[in-house]
């Protein structure tokens, strides 16, 4: 069973339908008490860092999520859901993330490039991971974001170049985060969601 | 090396159906933004497009009765089998309308007439991030009064340009007329803003898409063209790729 956290500004339904399409059991949850038995959790994106941070705190999701991570449950963060795994973001400096990963998000400042970074781009894999089974060393995925996690040698599993190289997949132990949207990345995205379910 | 691909976005325009369809809506082609021809059931149209390697799908409700909550059901039904980004528009006048569409599965929403409502735009941007907000600037030759710079200045004075994730430019006078896109405003937006630019209205050939990309557009919307050409999106992609454009030719 995949537990999808249904933050009000997220696209939890898109992730839900993607898993239904794959024939994998899943449910959207809005109450942290439902996380008690969870072993696989997806924290979807689409939103703003400050709004998601406040939701997780005010809805009492932060502590259960941290406990689950400590207990070894697998967590997949998508887009903003990946960014919130870090400490903070230039998008909302007064708010903090889950602090599960030692990273901070920065804003794209490249002068001659379009921001947000929107559309299909290449993901360049630098480290193997079960979630990448069957995808090869380079594949395309759909991105939509204005902030990014810089490349971190120990944590970055794949990167993308947009004026600056940024982390497109991050991972440590039982945590994985993807900056792109697997639920909207056609067959490549479906593979990642399916691999997460099998992980 | 930067590898962001140029995007091809089928635009599916819908209105309430005259006859019974599974969704209650019918897909139409427009000419100058007015209904021109019914082309079928939007859900099957979207399924066909999705099978042809599209980059996003733009779904627009042009029913005249203002925001229609039934449209949210269509968005929801669309999302049930969608693996492609979905951009949705249709008389969004309040934050609640945007919330309903996001809740139904939209990835981005399009604000047209109400783009001067900065409070609405700020609300969407703060709750969903600027990347979820597309503004559509739909103008006609009449609005231009001959001077494209006047139109640009009017848009700047509305104050929305710093709030948006993407700008969609449509010269209504060219919609469905198959005469190519009005690129004058594209060039100004390209120079003066950082938001990605989506051009639409008027495309009827691969060469006209190429002209849009050469002018600096990040994406194009395609509607009438797709119903008049023998090429599907996959074939259009190959053609553009052979012309040297950075286009996705496989997933």
Ordered list of secondary-structure elements with their pairings:
The complex is a heterodimer of chains A (199) and B (251).
Chain A: E1 2-5, H1 12-22, E2 26-29, E3 40-43, H2 49-58, H3 62-71, E4 74-78, H4 80-83, E5 88-89, E6 104-107, E7 117-125, E8 138-145, E9 147-148, E10 156-162, E11 164-172, E12 175-178, H5 186-198
Parallel strand pairs in A: 1-2, 1-3, 3-4, 4-12, 5-6
Antiparallel strand pairs in A: 6-9, 7-8, 7-10, 10-11, 11-12
Chain B: E1 7-16, E2 25-31, E3 34-40, H1 42-50, E4 57-61, H2 69-79, E5 86-89, H3 95-104, E6 108-111, H4 118-128, E7 133-139, H5 141-144, H6 148-158, E8 166-171, H7 184-192, E9 197-200, H8 206-214, E10 219-222, H9 224-228, H10 233-242
Parallel strand pairs in B: 1-4, 1-10, 4-5, 5-6, 6-7, 7-8, 8-9, 9-10
Antiparallel strand pairs in B: 1-2, 2-3
Helix pairs in contact in B: 2-3
The top-level CATH class of chain A is: Alpha Beta
Uncertain runs of chain A: none
In this structure, how is the largest beta sheet of chain B organized? Answer: 8 strands, parallel, barrel
Shape designation of chain A: globular
Radius of gyration of chain B: 17 Å
Would you write up a description of this structure?
The complex is a heterodimer of chains A (199) and B (251). Chain A is 24% helix and 31% strand. The mean pLDDT of chain A is 94. Chain A has helices at residues 12-22, 49-58, 62-71, 80-83, 186-198; strands at 2-5, 26-29, 40-43, 74-78, 88-89, 104-107, 117-125, 138-145, 147-148, 156-162, 164-172, 175-178. Chain A is an alpha/beta fold and 199 residues long. Chain B has a single domain (7-242), classed as Aldolase class I (TIM Barrel, Alpha-Beta Barrel). Chain B has helices spanning 42-50, 69-79, 95-104, 118-128, 141-144, 148-158, 184-192, 206-214, 224-228, 233-242, and strands spanning 7-16, 25-31, 34-40, 57-61, 86-89, 108-111, 133-139, 166-171, 197-200, 219-222. In chain B, helix 2 (69-79) runs parallel beside helix 3. Chain B is of the alpha/beta class and 251 residues long. Chain B has ten helices and ten strands. Chains A and B meet through helix 1, strand 7, strand 8, strand 10 and helix 5 of A and helix 3 and helix 4 of B.
């Amino acid at each position: 069973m995949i537990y999808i956290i249904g933050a009000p500004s997220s696209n939890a339904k898109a992730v839900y339908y993607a898993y239904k399409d794959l024939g994998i059991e899943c449910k959207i949850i809005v109450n942290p008490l439902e996380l008690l038995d969870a072993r696989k959790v997806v924290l979807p994106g689409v939103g703003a860092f400050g709004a998601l941070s406040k939701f997780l705190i005010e809805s009492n999701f932060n502590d259960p999520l941290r406990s689950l991570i400590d207990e070894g449950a697998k967590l997949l963060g998508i887009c903003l859901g990946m960014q919130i795994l870090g400490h903070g973001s230039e998008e909302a400096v007064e708010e903090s993330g889950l602090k599960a990963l030692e990273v901070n998000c920065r804003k794209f400042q490249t002068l001659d490039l379009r921001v947000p970074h929107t559309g299909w781009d290449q993901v360049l894999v630098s480290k193997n991971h079960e979630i990448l089974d069957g995808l090869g060393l380079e594949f395309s995925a759909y991105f939509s974001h204005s902030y990014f996690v810089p490349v971190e040698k120990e944590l970055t599993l794949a990167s993308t170049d947009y004026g600056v190289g940024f982390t497109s997949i991050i991972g440590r132990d039982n945590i994985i985060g993807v900056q792109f949207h697997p639920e909207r990345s056609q067959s490549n995205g479906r593979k990642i969601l399916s691999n997460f379910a099998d992980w | 090396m930067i590898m962001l691909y140029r995007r091809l976005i089928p635009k599916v325009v819908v209105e309430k159906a005259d006859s019974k369809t599974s969704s209650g809506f019918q897909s139409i082609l427009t000419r100058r933004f007015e209904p021109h021809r019914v082309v079928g059931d939007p859900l099957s149209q979207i399924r066909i497009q999705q099978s042809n390697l599209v980059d996003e799908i733009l779904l627009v409700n042009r029913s005249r009765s203002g925001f229609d909550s039934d449209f949210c059901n269509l968005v929801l039904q669309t999302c049930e089998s969608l693996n492609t980004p979905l951009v949705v528009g249709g008389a969004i006048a309040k934050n609640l309308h945007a919330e309903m569409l996001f809740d139904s599965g939209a990835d981005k929403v399009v604000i047209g007439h109400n783009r001067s409502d900065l409070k609405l735009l700020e609300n969407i941007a703060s709750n969903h991030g600027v990347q979820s907000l597309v503004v559509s600037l739909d103008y006609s030759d009449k609005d231009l009064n001959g001077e494209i710079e006047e139109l640009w200045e009017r848009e700047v004075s509305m104050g929305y340009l710093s709030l948006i994730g993407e700008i969609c430019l449509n010269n209504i006078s060219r919609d469905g007329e198959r005469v190519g896109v009005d690129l004058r405003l594209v060039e100004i937006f390209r120079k003066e803003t950082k938001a990605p630019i989506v051009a639409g209205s008027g495309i009827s050939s691969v060469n006209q898409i190429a002209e849009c990309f050469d002018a600096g557009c990040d994406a194009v919307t395609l509607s009438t063209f797709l119903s008049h050409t023998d090429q599907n999106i996959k074939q259009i992609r190959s053609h553009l790729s052979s012309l040297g454009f950075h286009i996705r030719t496989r997933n």
